[in-house]
Amino acid sequence: MQTPYKKESNKPYLDAVKPEVRALVGYEAPPQGKVIAKLNQNENPYDLPESMRKEILDEMGKQAWTRYPTYGAPVLQEKLAKRYKLNADQVLVGHGSNQLLYATATAIIAPDDPIVINPPSFSLFELITRIYRGRVVSVLQKEGFVYDTDKLLEAVRTAKLTMICSPNNPTGGVMELDLLERILERTPGLVLWDEAYGEFWGKSAIPLIGKHPNLLVMRTFSKAFGMAGIRIGYLMGDVSLIREIRKVIVPYNINLFNQIAATRMLKNSDWIETHIRKVISERQWLFDQMKACTDVIPYPSEANFISFHVSDGPDILNKLKEQGILIRNMGNYAMMENCLRVTVGKPKENRIFIKALCK
What we know:
The chain folds into two domains: about 30-50 and about 270-359, Alpha-Beta Complex (Aspartate Aminotransferase, domain 1); about 65-265, Aspartate Aminotransferase, domain 2. Helix content is about 35%, strand content about 15%. The chain has helices at about 20, 50-60, 75-85, 95-110, 125-130, 150-155, 175-185, 200, 240-245, 255-265, 270-290, 315-320, 345-359; strands at about 35-40, 90-95, 115, 135-140, 160-165, 190-195, 215-220, 235, 295-300, 305-310, 325, 330, 340-345.
């Protein structure tokens, strides 16, 4: 995550960049080459039906492209609020959930603030904390990727913000809601609960928002909704808290096309639920097949991916890539040496992957 900060005498202008940023390793997406099975980015493999795409494009064609989009995406905001039985002013829409994560950090994290994370977990939690010069308080998960309840409950006593994703990326494991409630009751600060993969788990902390005003719940259209290319996320919480975070969101952050596409998608609950069930079914098939492979240890997952341990992660990753099968190396995460992660794809893609992995 961090590299030593070095001054470069021949590039003095770089001294204008904050040292904490210079010390970071930025996100990179390696070249893909030929692709037979793209199973590396936790995307929904099922694209929107042609009829739905046509409706979205037709609606887009009726709009004035010379005008700014409606500020705050109020129609989408209202639809989301209705879906989750909230008030519209409890919902903040962002250009992907990552924008909302940055907005939350901008509004909350000051230098030296204690920020609790639970490695291995979403890499942006630590990255953003360091950018805003917060103090990272890492409570490592125990063997088998089980949360260390005692240490976690002790750490949150002084936390300004605790960031948790459940189901967890990259492990696929979950934190049960009763532990979340204990954290909410114990901490004097806020809890950001990331449910990017929540639809594949079937549980949600959204009903807890009314009971715990220090809870923020974040979701996305990129996973279960199959709209990673559209970039829409949303943050839900107490009215007063959402109002403060809204202040630091850039104006007109949701473009016209995104508003139309996401609003239209919410009308298609049957399509969404059908494909969630398909992914869950294929996830179980993948897990069972991987358990039967020699030297492959898959970890139980409630997300749309499975992480697994092998004897030589980089070697297997490269051999699969040579065959056009893209998965993700997790070896740079805490406790995940020689671990890889595969997204649940369509049945054909999953069978191609298993055949190559287990041969």
